[in-house]
Amino acid sequence: MMNKKDLERLLDQLDEPVFGCDEDGIVVYANRAAATLLGEVEEGQDENPADTWLQGDDGLLFPQVGESVERDVWLLRGGGRGRRLRVRVSPWPYSGALGWAVHVKSLDPQADRAAGMQAIARLIAEQLGEHLKVIISNASTGLMGGPSAPEAEAQRLRDIHAAGQSAAVLQRQLTALDARDRTRAYVDLGELLNDATPSLRALIGEDRLRLDVPDDTLMVTGDPDALAMLLDELGGWLRDALTAGGEARMWAVAHGDDHVRLCAALIGVTLSQTDRERLFTSDDGGGLTLALAVLSAHGGRLLLEPGARFGPTLTVELPSASRAARTAQREARLGNETILLVEDEPTTLEWMTESLRRLGYRVIAADNGITASALLREHRAELDLVLTDVVLPGRSGLELYAECRAGRPAPRVLLMSGYSSDFLGDPHLTDVQLLQKPVGPTLLAAAIRELLDRP
Question: For the domain with range 185-324, which CATH number is right: 3.90.650.10, 3.30.565.10, 3.30.470.10, 3.10.20.810?
Answer without folding.
Answer: 3.30.565.10
